[in-house]
Amino acid sequence: MRHLLLVLLVALAAVPAQELADILPFSMKLDAAGKLVWDVPAPAACGACAGQKLVPCPRCERKPVPCGLCTDRKSPCRSCSATGKQLDPFVDMPCPSCSGTQRDPCPTCSGSATIVSPDGKEKPCGGCKGRRWFPCIECAGAGRLPIGADQPLRALSLEAARARREQLRALKARVERRSKDVARASEPPTEMALLLEEVREALYLPDGADDRLLALAAAVVGDDAQSSVDFMISQHTLSLERRIEQEQEVLEKCIWRHRRNAGEFDRTAAGVPANSIEWQFPFGADKQRPDVLWLLLGRGFLRAPTSDDVKDVVAAWFAEHPKALMTPLVRIDAAGPGPTKATWIQVRVADDAHDLGLHLVERGCIPAYVLIAVREEIEVPFADYLTFLRRAKELEAAAKQNKLGLWREVDPARDDDLAAARKRQLDDDHAGALELYEKAIAAGHDRADTWTQVGTCRLELGDDAGALAAFDRAIAGGETWEARRGKACALWRRDGEVAAVAFLKTLELEPHEAERWHGELCRQHSQLDNAIVHYEQSVALASAKHAFRFDAEGWLLVDEATMQKENNDFADLWPTLEDIASLHFLRGNDAPAMRFATMGIAIGQQLNRCRGYYDATEVKAGDVDCRVLRGRLFCKQGKLVEAETEERFARTLAKRSGYTGYQRQLQVLQAEIDALRRR
């Protein structure tokens, strides 16, 4: 053992200090004995406000009139909670409710100081009495909350840290289960407050927040009082969930430090046979362990550039190395109440000296940085990890020099043609796009996805025969759903509905999938009422398949069996519910539109929960399209507060997605909300 420690210290001594610092979790360093110890730096001025405690108010930016929620267009700095100093992540955190700004806009008027009555007249807000905001309920206006106040997290033993982690998991599960009822206003605020008071005691949070909540709820009057109170309770719950998640993140680093110092990650462990996993690059799944998602890549893997042949190279490598083993590099534990894919594990796959990741870099299939761990708590020896990354950089440099894969010399005109074709297609210039797509194919870009776009353009131009030929080329090249949908549409136009449905039957779709596809075809051919019939049948079949039950409003009845469902189970109803709701809205069927939009949000909440990387607010938001639609329906009913609530949820989730199309939907909803305010 003494010899092993000596070897490890010598290896670490050879590692440049800066290189090692780049892979250590925050606030850690190595001592003379090679152990990880906490590095507690002296308090430094906040970089966001330069120690001034105030920053320009983001609400007032580019607005001629002050927002009324700040002071002289200055608001408390969110990064430091207006302390002027960098917060110690082991001591406290910016309040998740007010984001460190110390105040919350009035939930009744959203900070406008006025509301519109049912008769269309504007009147002073009954909640804030014109003040526009309240001191934050959660932090009592302090802007920050403590973490681990019972005992400093840095001082926790491994056993204490693990026990605290399990306690937080149980607390979060309990709050999440209860919050689903609160979102539907089916539980009195007083009963919810009793639960939250118990939870807050376990979190060592300031006393009196629940009293302030109930006092504020009692002060809200008017037609929208109940919905405002429900919203406050919901936000109160989400704040607690985020508070729990913040401490869980710090605890994971504490636990990792103890395990690293115990030498747990410096012992050679038997690897898992890589060929026992079903790979769909860059992911892997194992039916024996459905709670685990394996990753071949690391940092930035979702958006990392890859060569055209990367999947073929991966398949060939596995065929040549059937005895390859996986070594866990780092894991993301997203455990919650009954999640699927609860743990993501990034692995290195190797057969003796043959490493798959290095092979992909050497061939130019991926850049070297994608092999960096997705988080800092690596589970392999530091020295081995650094050697691995250095080798990846060397191989990337060689691939660039030899112009392999991503670094190959390409025909700029061909790539320019593809970019220009996509732009023309978005501008509805399908003839111009088609010409450029075919030019790119002639220059060597003979790929299935390009043939799919050729088929789509020909379909838009009315060339059904040409579209069918292009979609067949795409399907033969491996393109699946988009090309097959396009082929079904072309068949309908050329040969009629019977031919299109007959083609769907050859695909061996599940009953609910076949109904959905039939509905899509009806919608594309302007048979909206028929589309609704098939969409609703698809939802009924999928719900029966998974034993999903919805209440009268459309909220999913969540029991233990439902919480155990997998991500794909919920996906069987999405985006079908979005489509049904939008069609009913177009047809003026407001009641079913509201119900199906609510169902879409409920299913979206479960999809977001299963993904494991959404925060509590994003999980609660559920679905952007359905939130926007509900907001528009509330505007039609003259319910301003409810519409604004839907808009906030929709905007939160749209920000996570980054999809630009959501912004147009949000602008439409915001315009209707503004019109409602002016009434």
3D architecture notes:
The chain is α+β, with helices and mostly antiparallel strands and 679 residues long. It contains 25 helices and 17 strands. Strands 11, 12, 13, 14, 15, 16 and 17 form a 7-stranded mixed beta sheet that branches. Helix 3 packs antiparallel against helix 4 (189-202). The longest helix is centred in the middle third of the chain and has 37 residues, at 225-261. The chain is globular and about 70 Å long.
What radius of gyration results from the CA coordinates?
28 Å
User: How widely separated are the two ends?
Assistant: 79 Å
| Strand element count | 17
Low-confidence stretches: 1-11, 182-188, 335-341
Please give the largest β-sheet: 7 strands, mixed
How helical, in percent, are the residues?
A: 40-55%
Mean pLDDT: 79
Shape: globular
**Individual helix count:** 25
Structural class: alpha+beta
Proportion of beta-strand residues: 5-15%
Please sum up the structure shown.
This protein has 679 residues and is an alpha+beta fold.
Spell out the key features of this protein.
single chain, 679 residues, alpha+beta, 52% helix, disordered N terminus
